Amino acid sequence: MKINFKLNGQKYSLDVEPYEILLEMLRDRVGVKSPKCGCNRGDCGTCTVLLNGKTVRSCLVLAIEIDGAEITTLEGLMADGKLTPLQESFLAHNSFQCGFCASGMLLSTTELLEENPAPSKEEIKETLSGNLCRCTGYTPIIEAISDQAERRNKIWVS
Amino acid sequence: MGKLKYVGQSSPRIDGKVKITGAAQFIDDIDFGPNLLYAEIIESPYPHALIKKIDISKAEKVPGVVKVVTGKDFPYRFGLYMHDRHIFAQDRVRFVGEQVAAVIARDIRTAKKAAQLIKVIYEPLESVLTTEDALAQNPTLIHPDLADYNHVPWFFPKGGTNIAHWRKVRKGDMEKGFAQADLVLEDDYTVPRYAHCAIETHGAIGHYDYSGRLTVYTASQSPFTQRHLFAQALAPLGLTHKDIRVLSPFVGGGFGGKAGVSMEILAAALATAVRGNPVKILWSRSQEFYNTYQRQGLSAKIKLGAKHDGTITALEQILHWDAGAYVEYGANVVNAAGLSATGPYRIPNVTIDSVCVYTNLPPGGPYRGFGYSEFLFGLESHINEVSKRLGIDPVMFRRLNAIREGDSLAYGAEMNPNGMIEAIDKVAREIEWGKKTKSDNPKKAIGKGIALFWKAPAMPPNASSTAFLKFNEDGSLNLMVSAMEIGQGFLTVMAQIAAEILTVPPEKIRVELPDTDRNPYEWQTVASHITWGCGTAVERAAVDAREQIFDVVERGLCKDRASLYLEDECIKSKTDSTFSLPLKDIVIGGIMQPDGTFRGGPIVGRGMFMPEFASASSDPETSQGGHPNVHYTVGAAGIILEIDKETGKMHIPKVTLAVDLGKAINPDLVKGQVAGGLLQGIATVLYEDMRFNKDGKILNANFTDYKIPTAMDIPDEVVPILVEVPQPDGPFGARGMGEHTMIPAAPIIANAVEDALGIRIKSMPITAEKIALALREYKKRKEK
Amino acid sequence: MPIVHDFEYFKPAKITEALRLLSKHKGAAVFAGGTDIINEIKEGIAMPDFLIDIKGLSSLNKIQFKDGKLSIGALVTFSEILKSSVIKKRLPVFAEVARTVGSVGIRNRATMVGNICSAVPCMDSGPLLSAFDAMIIVQSLKSKRRIPIFDWFRGPRKTALKKGELVTGIEITIPKKKNAGCYAKLGRYTGEDLAQASVLVLALADHTYRVAFGSVGPVPIRARQIEELLGEEEITDILIAHAQALIPGIVTPITDIRASKEYRLQMCQVMFERALRTAVSRLAGVGPEYGINVTEQIGGVAV
């Protein structure tokens, strides 16, 4: 079946079979590699993408379902090729070790900050609780988000 | 050594940007073009069985299937320390999930569909699922040919039994030691199996081209070791080291699980069956659980004697390791733990029996901590119990018996310089040891726990690291090493070391990922030895490059070599303050002479490190005589633990870990190791364990049932404490600390639970459920 | 890892079209969020020949309060329940339950209707809907029926849904009396985890109570004996102890990979007390606020 969708701002038209999974379609057919497969059953969050602005596990979505939808991956956050302030904050905090979970963490956080520009540490933790990381103990990730949120709010207030 | 500019700085990771932009390539991210094939593995459903017949005829006929292979196609043994494995099972399977055959097809769906059509007829054998059964009288033998296996000289397998290796350590006089003791306490402690749970699963792509070249891409901590093992195993096909190239892209978490060779050998072997086509194998999450390495289970029997004054007089540790079906790597965990099972204590009389036992469970192997987490759980719990019974404060007791520089180790060698006492004191202060904290909430109990740790890199005595360093025209550098970036930050640390010597900032240094063709040799990225071993090689490569530069300046400008030094990317002179020559002006093009000729040429530094003092040769009955461990990194950890007495749920207001790492090359990355390693360690205590049914099948091979902590399950506060007593042979005095951050987690929690509730839990994990049920029993007993 | 199983996909735009497809294709499965079924197809647990995506049925995506009833359409996700201002105001315990389901990326897709159609014993919606005497609205080409929640669950992964039927929504009669609830969920982890056991208590202004347990039996359990015992009595320590003593006769936990039956039973008693006290305290307007997990808060919440 032919589907049309927008990926990171660009229009795509693709023939897909019902059994194709969104994650596989993005990685193997479109060549967008930032969403990763960690568990293939929705437990780890490393395949997270934004589907019409909301995070979903792309390993649990059929490619055929996204006809008419808009998908954003990590690549799409850097629309002008520059790092986002959130990425800068992650960089400054040495937030990642192996980096495999990075894309999912960044997208989950992006959704959170859209809805809640001033999240508490508890809210940050709750948001990230579906994105598993085995390396960092989460601390530097939480701190990077918390810092970025604070900075952003200062700018808004001033 | 003057003031350091780059070493000791928390500089940002040099691989930070590539990771936060999603640009970092992991194994599954590499494209191989339209002729890429996919392999699906057929696995044993039995823990122990004979393979009677494999019918592949139906699978072969499926359109899109290129090849079906079985054990018959690859009758080759392999293994890191002992050749006890085959690429595919031959006549016998020894664990549920063992690879029996493979289907190679043009797409993964076809491979999977065809795999379902392969019929294997098994004759089930009696299986051995516990160390008790394996060590019983006349047990079922898992490896009847054990006596014939090749192995390293420091292993002692017992043919005709299920004992793959028995490390014996004997020191002093046990009878005398226990006779001198005023208290002798014996107890048993058990530790289950654990999974590494890197978020990236294993994957490998093999490509055997028509020229006879075998290229293998692997998600690996050990590219050179893999090349060596592939060459050994595939030698009958005419392949040599020169013909094999292993490349490893970024690795999505290792923790020991991607060390050595596990599934990667399948890609290497299968590639030879479909010449001309790359063939890919990617482990699913469940395969990741049952067919890579697992952390081995342990039953420990500890007997410890001490005097009223707190002096430990004797220790006996009998460690039975459930090592699984193949121990080619795991037996060295048993070996390493056996050598060091005294823990960081000076004990005059020691008996250690560390026994590697075959079982029909998945193969055990390396896991961050390499056996130390396992024996420390029992030992450090036991130390608390002994001190409590003697009426001595457990911190005082540990301080009194802690090993010091120059002390004789259980196997005779001398203890290296270390800051153990400083670590103990700082941890005790951090958790306000001695100050009882009581909760306002009657349903809560608060306890504190402390434990010491030590760990040496477990490596063959000739394990080596090398480095090449080449300058570019702009004075930037490419540093070629073959250690692996598994997240620990080694790329950054190597860049900092080279930066310090060459005065080139780390951001101008690219550290390349391993490629066995292009980069020089590295044994493996394991054992927390990279900062020390590979770091020394990099230091030497940088010094080599610097000396070449001075050489060129001496020859090209007639400068007194002894006066030259580097500063801010320039060559300067102590005797001529006006002299300043930017590196970039000469490192490629050399120095022009008045006659228009040049002196010098591209600068390429070379560095190598092998610990030439190490030796694994010792008396098999006592372990006396060798120098099997290069040095120990030591430290202490402490915790404040809150327990809900009704639900058993535990909450960690504070955990601290002091580690003597000699020198923190990058303190921020060190702190990252502490936060991450502690949580991984805490998870093995509070939540995780591998479960098997009575048929040896794993029950929780997914992240729903074998769940790892989430961001909501972390301690409130993690306090890393860095102690820096330099390691004489380490780069800038550094020694490793990556594994050490998780190994004390179990005993600190066990000790804190005991402190809070008066209940000693002697089996891991210490879950909320275990506590709640133990408390109920405790109450019932009290009421009676 | 791809899906190996072959199936056809339909996305009807109208309910009648969906019902026609359902009646025509016996091997059809319906999905909305897909968080359960896509996984099941991948793992070979479910092998439908036809997959009917109902996300095109826009009339089913509403949360409505009307005539004293709350209705939740089949497309309403847990995220929408969690964020709904009207739910937060009138039935905040629904949000409290929704918040414990999976994590954000799951809640953005998973629906409450899907949750009760999957009907796994550890589902979070079970005790909630049992306590509220929910009706499940089911439609087929021929008829429309309303199935009381107690008839709905027939066992683990088994419901009263017949071939050709589609669940269009859930309906709850809002208690006329002022009320407050509390959902206590026991997981191994504080973060995303499945329930080892769960309890929902609803306290009403006439001093009556509703109590339901989840994950401690093949289907959600409404604890009528406890409700009768508590009815119109003042909540005292002794009364709670009496109620707790009834629990072993009400729940039927099993030992599995996530917990033992002993622990589950013991925790039902602990969580019942905490949920009851919290619900009573919320009814009295003294908090604690919704969203706090009284199982996780060490020592429970002071009430």
Q: What attributes characterize this protein structure?
A:
heterotrimer, A: 158 residues, alpha+beta, Ubiquitin-like (UB roll), DNA polymerase, domain 1, 2 domains, 5-stranded mixed beta sheet, 6 helices, globular, B: 784 residues, Aldehyde Oxidoreductase, domain 4, 3 domains, 7-stranded mixed beta sheet
Largest sheet of chain B, if any? 7 strands, mixed
Shape of chain C: globular
At the fold tier of CATH, the topology name of the largest domain in chain B is: Aldehyde Oxidoreductase, domain 4
Instruction: Note the quaternary state here.
Output: heterotrimer
CATH class of the largest domain in chain B: Alpha Beta
The total number of structural domains of chain C is 3
Instruction: Output the helix-strand order of chain C.
Output: EHEHEEEHHHHHHEEHEEEEEEEHHH
Specify the structural class of chain C: alpha+beta
Q: Name the shape of chain B in a single word.
A: globular
Integer-rounded radius of gyration of chain B: 27 Å
Alpha-carbon distance between the two ends of chain C: 49 Å
How many DSSP-defined strands of chain C? 14
Assign the CATH class of the largest domain in chain C.
Alpha Beta
Percent strand of chain C equals: 15-25%
Helix content of chain C: 25-40%
Describe the overall structure.
The complex is a heterotrimer of chains A (158), B (784) and C (303). Chain A has 158 residues and is an alpha+beta fold. Chain A folds into two domains: 2-73, Roll (Ubiquitin-like (UB roll)); 85-157, [2Fe-2S]-binding domain (DNA polymerase, domain 1, Orthogonal Bundle), CATH 1.10.150.120. In chain A, 39% of the residues lie in helices and 15% in strands. A five-stranded mixed β-sheet of chain A has the order 2-1-5-3-4. Chain B is an alpha+beta fold and 784 residues long. In chain B, helix 13 runs parallel beside helix 14. Chain B folds into three domains: 16-23 and 464-609, Aldehyde oxidase/xanthine dehydrogenase, molybdopterin binding domain (Aldehyde Oxidoreductase, domain 4); 32-125 and 202-282, Alpha-Beta Complex (Aldehyde Oxidoreductase, domain 3); 297-402 and 410-459 and 616-783, Aldehyde oxidase/xanthine dehydrogenase, molybdopterin binding domain (Aldehyde Oxidoreductase, domain 4). Chain C folds into three domains: 8-56, Uridine Diphospho-n-acetylenolpyruvylglucosamine Reductase, domain 2; 59-173, Uridine Diphospho-n-acetylenolpyruvylglucosamine Reductase, domain 3; 179-283, CO dehydrogenase flavoprotein, C-terminal domain (Enolase-like, domain 1, 2-Layer Sandwich). Chain C is built from twelve helices and 14 strands. In chain C, strands 4-5-10-6-7 form a five-stranded antiparallel β-sheet.
